């Protein structure tokens, strides 16, 4: 073992290392808090000046991360900056940046590439660079490796390169950063060794794999497994509905089987940064090898069609009441992508809102976790959350239950809504004013 490897490992084990986290969002911020909590100094780097100002003032911009935790981190060595030159100070650089799709449903690697390019001048011997962003197999090797070595540093000898995919589940109280096992693959055996030393301080279980490609593929398999099964149950929902069967009753019943079945529930489409996006990373990369991932692509088509299915149920319900969608007022309940969080990434609720507007409906929303519609890369509504009252509900021709937050008063909604389009199976007992979608 070279002296450089020994020095790097020693710094992590002794907690003398400065941990640099690049990208302070839903992944980077919890990771910062974890390293800070166990005694590491942490430097957060982000291009968003507003985020950096808030963090340095001890404020949180993510609902499920209390401000008091940021304040505690600030008093014990955490600092945020927009100055990439300070990467030179860091012993680890953990990249937690977005990897969205472009308008052609192809990987948009600009955030990863631009971030790596911004860090390049400040890379030095002894550092470990870890990519956590979900991506296609080969990204670390093809995009990061040549950039990291551009200045003359040799990966595996001078500097260490790993891929360790994030596994955050915002709003899930059963798991936290520490308790979720961490997959890690290194560009070389030495990279893996140093990467394990970095992560084993903060995570209860580190799971090494043979390469960065294997680690990248592991993350995709996890999310594709979920996307395919949700696609299956969404298709089953349409069939069951046509046959007059409640798919939620069926899934509940099937879930009593103690082996060989995992319950997945249908919804209005896929949301979040991972499940709607990651399958397309693999389908895109597979084409380079002359392969077509038909199974994955089919589930993607089914899931992408769900907002249209919800819209069709809304149109049918209004028609039965003698109304057209054009000119009707529709309240969308819940615009976060899943219950009890403020995360709007890839939320199907937003697509449903756009579809309603495109058909001439007037749309509003109510979400106790998102009080003002945020600025998004592709969507914007100049709206605030409507208070959920008897008077508010009376104003609307229909409500669409898109995200089933626990804070909603479902009895109030049922009693005072003219028409409810339930895309989450919240109302199991049939009622005249409820249509399952």
How would you describe what is shown here?
This protein has 437 residues and is α/β, with parallel strands linked by helices. The protein folds into three domains: 3-209, NAD(P)-binding Rossmann-like Domain (Rossmann fold, 3-Layer(aba) Sandwich), CATH 3.40.50.720; 220-302, N-(1-d-carboxylethyl)-l-norvaline Dehydrogenase, domain 2 (Orthogonal Bundle), CATH 1.10.1040.10; 305-436, Rossmann fold (3-Layer(aba) Sandwich). The protein is 39% helix and 13% strand. It is built from 15 helices and 13 strands. The chain has helices spanning 3-13, 28-37, 49-56, 67-75, 110-119, 139-149, 189-199, 212-242, 247-254, 278-288, 294-304, 306-320, 348-358, 390-395, 410-416, and strands spanning 18-22, 41-45, 78-81, 92-95, 128-131, 160-163, 182-186, 206-209, 329-333, 362-366, 398-401, 420-422, 434-436. The strands form two sheets. The protein has an eight-stranded mixed beta sheet with strand order 3-2-1-4-5-6-7-8, with helices on both faces. A five-stranded parallel beta sheet has the order 10-9-11-12-13, with helices on one face. Strand 4 (92-95), helix 5 and strand 5 form a beta-alpha-beta unit. Helix 1 packs parallel to helix 7 (189-199), helix 8 packs across helix 11 (294-304) and helix 12 crosses helix 13. The longest helix is centred in the middle third of the chain and has 31 residues, at 212-242. It is globular and about 80 Å long. The N and C termini lie far apart (60 Å). The mean pLDDT is 94.
Keywords:
437 residues; alpha/beta; Rossmann fold; 39% helix
């Amino acid at each position: 073992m070279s002296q450089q490897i020994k020095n790097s490992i020693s710094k992590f084990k002794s907690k003398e290392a400065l941990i640099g986290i690049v990208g302070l969002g839903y992944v980077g911020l919890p990771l910062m808090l974890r390293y800070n909590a166990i005694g590491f100094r942490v430097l957060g780097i982000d291009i968003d000046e507003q985020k950096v100002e808030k963090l340095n003032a001890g404020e949180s911009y993510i609902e499920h991360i209390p401000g008091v935790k940021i304040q505690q981190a600030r008093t014990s060595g955490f600092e945020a900056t927009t100055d990439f030159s300070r990467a030179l100070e860091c012993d680890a650089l953990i990249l937690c940046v977005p990897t969205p799709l472009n308008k052609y449903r192809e990987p948009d690697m600009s955030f990863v590439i631009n971030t790596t390019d911004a860090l390049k001048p400040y890379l030095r011997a002894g550092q470990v660079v870890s990519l956590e962003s979900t991506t296609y197999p080969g990204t670390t090797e093809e995009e990061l490796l040549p950039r990291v070595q551009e200045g003359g540093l040799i990966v595996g000898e001078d500097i260490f390169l790993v891929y360790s995919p994030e596994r955050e589940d915002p709003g899930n109280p059963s798991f936290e950063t520490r308790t979720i096992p961490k997959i890690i693959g290194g560009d070389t055996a030495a990279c893996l060794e140093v990467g394990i030393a970095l992560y084993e301080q903060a995570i209860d279980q580190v799971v090494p794999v043979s390469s960065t490609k294997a680690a990248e593929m592991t993350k995709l398999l996890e999310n594709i497994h979920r996307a395919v099964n949700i696609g299956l149950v969404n298709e089953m929902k349409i069939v069951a509905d046509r046959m007059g069967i409640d798919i939620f009753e069926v899934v509940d019943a099937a879930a009593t089987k103690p082996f060989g079945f995992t319950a997945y529930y249908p919804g209005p489409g896929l949301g979040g940064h991972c499940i709607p996006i990651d399958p397309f990373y693999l389908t895109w990369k597979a084409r380079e090898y002359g392969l077509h991932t038909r199974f994955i692509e089919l589930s993607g088509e089914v899931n992408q069609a769900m907002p249209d299915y919800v819209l069709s149920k809304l149109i049918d319900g209004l028609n039965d009441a003698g109304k057209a969608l054009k000119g009707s007022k529709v309240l969308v309940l819940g615009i976060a992508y899943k219950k009890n969080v403020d995360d709007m990434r890839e939320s199907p609720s937003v697509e449903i809102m756009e579809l309603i507007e495109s058909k001439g409906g007037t749309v509003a929303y109510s979400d106790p976790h998102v009080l003002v519609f945020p600025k998004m890369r592709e969507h914007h509504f100049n709206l605030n959350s409507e208070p959920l009252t008897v008077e508010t509900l009376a104003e609307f021709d229909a409500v669409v239950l898109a995200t089933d937050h626990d804070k909603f008063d479902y009895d109030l909604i049922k009693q005072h809504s003219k028409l409810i389009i339930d895309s989450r199976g919240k109302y199991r007992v049939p009622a005249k004013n409820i249509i399952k979608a």
